[in-house]
């Protein structure tokens, strides 16, 4: 919660008066956000007004939309409850190299074999085109100067290799295969980079409502490294000062339970200094991606 946005008795009284005048919970929440209130603070204030005994906004009378805004969406999550340094996922022994709780970031070692990395590069190379980002004004995509890589998408379940990797990722992250977008392979040549950005779809963009119809918000990202560049190309998280160096077969996972900067998931691809960088990215959605 922001230190500048406190939930006071006066605020709860104003919320109560708006509800008494017939304003719906969703309308009130939207109005508060448009006035500059942080979404989670606004939802918590609304929940506390509806049930002052709440420590967390879980009252039965709170609408699902308000509860989700306050509590966040379910997210993919590897099972690290045993504290084991190695996870046996099907035919792979995947190492846990780093685990952060907030933001939720996990670095895995040996998620892909060298042969799988090489095969994915070989299958994608002839299909590469200039990478694009989500268009700001419509439901398509567009070339963006912030992203200077080449990329392509595999269809979900396109071949045996992709099906095997997708099944492994689903087991690792406890998230259904059909809740994921197709794997995207990217090549970064020397000097190529991806400036810091968020992977969730910006609720303020006019293109977002159409995108969300295909499976809801993105709630998690997994970046797998298909080679080891000679220098540069780290995945960077500027908000927390974390750099994940690209090592062939390794991967970095992070999740975000709401489309807000407070998730601290601002990230980017640092410039490749020497050699090339190949990555495969898996974006995970709230629901079935179609």
Any overview of this molecule?
By secondary structure, the chain is an alpha+beta fold. About 2% of the residues have low confidence. The chain is elongated. It contains 7 helices and 17 strands.
How many H/I helices?
Answer: 7
User: Low-confidence stretches at least 5 residues in length (pLDDT < 50)?
Assistant: 54-59
**Averaging pLDDT over every residue, what do you get?**
88
Number of DSSP-assigned strands: 17
Beta-strand proportion: 25-35%
How far apart lie the N and C ends?
A: 35 Å
Radius of gyration: 21 Å
Topology of this structure?
Blueprint: H1 9-20, H2 25-34, H3 39-50, H4 64-71, E1 86-89, E2 92-100, E3 105-109, H5 114-124, E4 129-130, E5 132-134, E6 141-143, E7 150-153, H6 160-173, E8 184-188, E9 194-197, H7 208-212, E10 218-225, E11 231-232, E12 235-237, E13 242-244, E14 251-255, E15 267-269, E16 272-274, E17 277-285
Antiparallel strand pairs: 1-2, 2-3, 3-14, 4-7, 5-6, 7-8, 8-17, 9-15, 10-14, 10-17, 11-16, 12-13, 12-15
Helix pairs in contact: 1-3, 2-3, 3-4
Q: Key features?
A:
single chain; 290 residues; alpha+beta; nine-stranded antiparallel β-sheet; four-stranded antiparallel β-sheet; 7 helices; 25% helix; 26% strand; elongated
Q: Brief overview, please?
A:
By secondary structure, this protein is α+β, with helices and mostly antiparallel strands. The protein contains 7 helices and 17 strands.
């Amino acid at each position: 919660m922001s230190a500048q946005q406190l939930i006071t008795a006066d605020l709860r009284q104003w919320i109560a008066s708006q509800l008494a005048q017939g304003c719906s919970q969703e309308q009130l929440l939207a109005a508060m956000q448009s006035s500059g209130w942080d979404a989670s603070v606004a939802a918590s204030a609304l929940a506390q007004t509806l049930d002052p005994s709440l420590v967390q906004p879980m009252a039965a009378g709170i609408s699902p939309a308000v509860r989700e805004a306050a509590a966040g969406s379910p997210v993919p999550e590897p099972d690290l409850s045993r504290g084991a340094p190695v996870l046996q996922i099907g035919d792979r022994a995947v190492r846990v190299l780093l685990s952060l709780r907030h933001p939720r970031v996990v670095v895995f070692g040996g998620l892909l074999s060298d042969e799988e990395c090489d095969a994915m590069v070989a299958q994608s190379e002839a299909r590469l085109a200039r990478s694009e980002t989500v268009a700001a004004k419509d439901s398509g995509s567009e070339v963006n100067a912030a992203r200077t890589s080449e990329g392509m998408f595999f269809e979900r379940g396109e071949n045996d290799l992709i099906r095997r990797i997708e099944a492994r990722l689903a087991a690792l992250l406890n998230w259904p295969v059909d809740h994921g977008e197709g794997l995207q392979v990217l090549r970064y040549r020397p000097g190529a980079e991806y400036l810091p950005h968020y992977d969730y779809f910006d609720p303020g963009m006019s293109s977002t409502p159409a995108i969300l119809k295909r499976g809801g918000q993105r709630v998690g990202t997994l970046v797998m490294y298909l080679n080891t560049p000679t220098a540069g190309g780290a995945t960077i998280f500027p908000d927390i000062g974390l750099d994940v160096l690209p090592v062939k077969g390794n991967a970095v996972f992070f999740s975000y339970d709401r489309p807000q900067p407070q998730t601290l998931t601002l990230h980017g691809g640092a410039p490749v200094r020497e050699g090339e960088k190949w990555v495969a990215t898996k974006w995970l959605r709230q629901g079935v991606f179609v």
